[in-house]
Amino acid sequence: MRIASIDIGTNTLRLLIGELTEAGTVEKLHIQRVITRLGEGFSQNNGIISELAAQRTIRALSGFADVLSDYRVEHVRAVATSVVRESSNKEEFKERVNTETGLNIEIISGEEEAVLTVNGVLGSVTVTTEDALIFDIGGGSTEYIHVRGNTIISLKSVPLGVIHMTEQYLSNNINSESELAHLTQYIDNILASKLTDFDIPDTSILSLIGTAGTPTTLAAIELKLDPYKPSLVNSFILSRVMIVHMLKKLSSMTAEERLSLTGLEKGREDLIVSGTLTVLRTMNRFSKDSLIVSDGGLLEGVLYSLA
């Protein structure tokens, strides 16, 4: 039986099609992603998904529907995250998607997003410590999940979305020390106020795992991947030294100049600085000098939920 998951994110749409085997495992058949910037201008637009962003996203979802038909997929679960659940016109958007593409989308909470992300991550990388801190940096929010074994101890969805932070704090030109300082202060304030349930006594034996666009892009840049190869990115170790060097380089370039970097996908060139800074401040919050990159996350977790 063929099943599929769709992740309708604030920045990126992703599709994963798999074959459910008799043994109960899932064989991946097709993966696809399109950057549509569904959350573009959201914070300046009074929490409304703009018409242009909606059109771009629905057009891409129509393409996904064609692929699902070609693969003869029997069951599909399409989930929408941060920007849709926070928008005042979410029901209108949901109805338009169904009318124009035939897809029924499910608007999930930040907590359910975190649970699904954990399932996707733990099915993708090996964790050798008893405790792990998984974080998923998205376009509209970041999810933090403290896991012990397979049990979730704490989880929180916080307003650290790379689209919102970039629009509010950063320009497309070379980022000044002042811009970076203001954004750093904002991130630190959010982490201090929102993660009060994340007091982990001994972080020296904690695995820090980053998933979604920013960590995977940083790994791809470090590895100079063209094209992107999930097998090389999955379980890659990013050190603090690598990320500090990367931030210094990225912030000294314009958004357009960053496109010359091998491994940086077009559509992320303006968002990568705010995402990188979020990674660094997360490492600082949990006193870690390295993190494990997981290519698997929410998309895989949604697929496993169908299996």
Describe the structure.
This protein has 307 residues and is of the alpha/beta class. The protein folds into two domains: 2-108, Nucleotidyltransferase, domain 5 (2-Layer Sandwich); 123-300, Nucleotidyltransferase, domain 5 (2-Layer Sandwich), CATH 3.30.420. The chain has helices spanning 51-70, 82-86, 90-101, 110-122, 162-169, 177-194, 213-223, 230-233, 240-251, 255-258, 272-285, 298-306; strands at residues 2-8, 12-20, 26-35, 75-80, 105-107, 131-137, 142-148, 151-158, 206-211, 237-239, 290-294. It has a six-stranded mixed β-sheet, with helices on both faces. A five-stranded mixed β-sheet has the order 3-2-1-4-5, with helices on both faces. Strand 2 (12-20) and strand 3 (26-35) form a beta hairpin. Helix 6 (177-194) crosses helix 11. The protein is globular. The mean pLDDT is 91.
Characteristics of this structure?
Nucleotidyltransferase, domain 5; five-stranded mixed β-sheet; six-stranded mixed β-sheet; 12 helices; alpha/beta; 2 domains
